[in-house]
Design goal:
23% strand, alpha+beta, single chain
Length: 177
């Protein structure tokens, strides 16, 4: 969709084509009860085929989310993470591998902080920028890390950059950072 890499939803929304010259097809799976509800709604609301109605509903959802300023939730999965930690501030950071992390795009979450993996009673969670392996922030709840990632994702910066100094280079608000 749209064109620029790293562009947020609000940016590509304005770039959507009016014509149907380049269409993409999606397959949507539904239970019979869902399909019946969707068909009825499509018929009542617009009289168009269900696929067209679903596209309109998805576009309206995205437009409403961006107008309200709400971040879109990210899809998280379990994974291994590599994280830079620095238990002793006088020594150089070093990398550890975390087996029970969660990831979504360029972000990872693990139970721990800059000192290392969390052990009871310290149950903190940290949000990590996976390409740089750097901790972005540490919170009491995993949910807070995931919410911050959702808020950061639309920023127009190079999330895939592995050099921490270059992640924000070229961003529209680079001078303010």
């Amino acid at each position: 969709m749209g064109g620029r890499e790293g562009a947020g939803i609000a940016d590509w929304w304005a770039e959507m084509p009016d014509s149907h010259e380049r269409m993409v097809t999606f397959t949507v799976r539904a239970f019979p009860e869902q399909a019946a509800r969707w068909e009825a709604a499509a018929k009542i609301q617009s009289g168009v085929p269900v696929g067209d109605w679903l596209a309109d509903v998805a576009d309206a959802y995205l437009k409403d989310m961006t107008k309200a300023g709400n971040p879109l939730p990210l899809k998280w999965h379990h994974c291994w993470l590599r994280v830079l930690i620095q238990p002793d501030l006088r020594r150089e950071p070093y990398e550890i591998e975390v087996g029970d992390g969660r990831a979504s795009g360029p972000f990872g979450v693990f139970r721990g902080c800059r000192r290392g993996l969390a052990k009871p009673p310290d149950l903190s969670y940290s949000l990590v920028h996976k390409p740089t392996r750097r901790i972005i922030g540490t919170f009491a709840r995993r949910k807070d890390c995931e919410m911050l990632a959702s808020e950061l994702m639309p920023l127009r910066i190079n999330w895939e950059e592995t050099d921490p100094e270059k992640v924000v280079r070229g961003a529209p608000d680079e001078r303010r950072a």
